[in-house]
Amino acid sequence: MNVLRRLGCVFVLALSLLAQRAPAPPAETFERELKKNRLGTWLVLEDEALTWGAAARTAVQEDTLAALNLPLQVAGGKKADAMSTYLRERYGWSKGGHWALLDSAGRVMADGAAKPTAAALAAAAERAGLRSRAQELADFLRRNEDHLEARVALLREQIITACRRTTKLLGATVENPKPEEAGKVPEPVLFEAESDLKIWAEVAQSLDRLFQGRWLETSSDLPWALNGAEAVHSPTMRALWSRHLPAVEEALRRQPNAWDLWRIWILAADLTGGRPLSPLLDSLEPLPGTAPEDWPPAAVLEAFVRDAKKRGDWRAIREAMEPRWEEWRGDTRRVAMGQGPGERVWTRLLQPLVEALLSTGDAGAADQVVAQAIESLRWEGVAGLARDLATRLNRPDLAARWGGLSQARPR
Q1: Which of 22, 57, 205, 234 has a CA 20 to 30 Å removed from the CA of 6?
Q2: Weakly modelled stretches of the chain, pLDDT under 70
Q3: Half-sphere exposure of 46 (CA within 13 A, CB side)
């Protein structure tokens, strides 16, 4: 026993020493960052007089450089650190500012000692013969037209570039502002036709071509490729998704538990300004024996609620959750719940419903739902959860009322 105890102490000590390990040396850190992109890396080295980081970050967002999608590393500044000292020694750069285009091994492909403007960086990339990932994939597809993985990868690169150009054009983050009043859905800024086509036409063409072919075979990769909320500002992308969403819904009727298809639907529904969930759910048939509290899949409801909250669309949440709750209450297969199932029903269904009712000013309906939950779920813990929700929403009157229901006993 003493031997085991000593071995345990040694193991704990070793873990402690690993946790307190000194930071990696600059050379190791730098090499690791270089290998993150095999095409290249922009490096900007500053000193106390020449701080070029901001200028370089602006330059790489220009149209001529955004498509390259190269990482930018900025070192140095008004006070030299270990990394900037290492870089000056490695590349032999004397005092002053410097920038360079490096390959994945850290070799200099092009460099300069003047302020890194977009024109200078673009010229450096051209001299180095640098080609973007999107150009590589486009060339590959010309030789392998039916290669679906490459087509999805190209779509991803095009979306990344379009998102960067969208952010630059808007001049700020593209997140929608919070609603000024409960229940009001803020409208995103929509681009004029010229800007929209300049930024998003290439993406739309690639996505449209995919949906005209074997898109279902790519459904596991599409959510990753399509990720980019900036598309909400494109009328072209909105119109395209309005045309192709029925195909996604038809696929869900054949595979109602396919999470990748749900992710595509939720993303596209959000980009088109929100789409009601209930009509789609009403058209789907879950597998026989699916418990009421497990349909629709929890991840689907969570994602739908998250995106609707982001838009401030409380009405959409109410319209999706109220029928589910009424259906659940009327299901003859339902048995006494208890903590496990009862907590799942509250978290997945009732909490977003009650929050939506309060956020749209219908406290009476929210109070009724909580009372129904106390009776139907047959689990006293729901009262405490309802009280906590009311407290978070700054409704102390309802918090006191709902908290008091915890003494009620199931009938």
Answers
A1: 22
A2: 1-23, 172-186, 293, 331-340, 406-411
A3: 17
3-state secondary structure (DSSP) of residue 98: strand
* pLDDT tens-digit series, residues 280-304: 988 999 888 887 767 888 888 888 8
Do the beta carbons of residue 410 and residue 391 sit within 8 Å? Answer: no
Amino acid type, 308: A
* Phi and psi angles of residue 325, each rounded to the nearest 5 degrees, phi first: -65, -45
- DSSP designation for 24: P
26-130: CATH class: alpha beta
d(C-alpha 311, C-alpha 229), whole Å: 12
Q: What is the pLDDT of residue 381?
A: 85
pLDDT (0 to 100) of residue 327: 81
10: alpha, beta or left? (left if phi > 0; alpha if psi -120 to 50) = alpha
Distance in angstroms (rounded) separating the CA atoms of residues 215 and 209: 9
Give tens-digit pLDDT for 131-159: 888 999 999 999 999 999 999 999 999 99
Instruction: Quote the pLDDT of residue 411.
Output: 43
Task: Measure CA 318 to chain center.
Answer: 24
Contacts (Cβ under 8 Å, ≥6 apart) of 70: 37, 39, 40, 41, 42, 60, 101
- From CA 139, how far away is CA 133, in angstroms rounded? 10
Measured CA to CA in angstroms, residue 274 lies from 227, 267, 269, 403 at distances of: 16, 9, 5, 34
307-331 exposure pattern, b = at least 16 Cβ within 10 A, e = fewer: bbbebbbbbbbbbbbbebbeebeee
Average pLDDT of the residues of the chain: 84
Tens of pLDDT, residue by residue over 360-385, are 999 999 999 999 888 888 777 888 99
Largest CA distance in the chain: 83
Measuring CA to CA, which residue among 177, 158, 161, 180 is closest to residue 169? 161
The pLDDT assigned to 181 comes to 46
Instruction: Supply the pTM of this predicted model.
Output: 0.72
The answer to whether 204 touches 237, Cβ cutoff 8 Å, is yes
CB 376 within 8 A of CB 341: no
What ranges do the domains of the chain cover? 26-130, 133-275, 298-411
H-helix or E-strand spanning residue 280: helix 278-282
Burial class (CB in 10 A: 0-12, 13-18, 19+), 104: middle
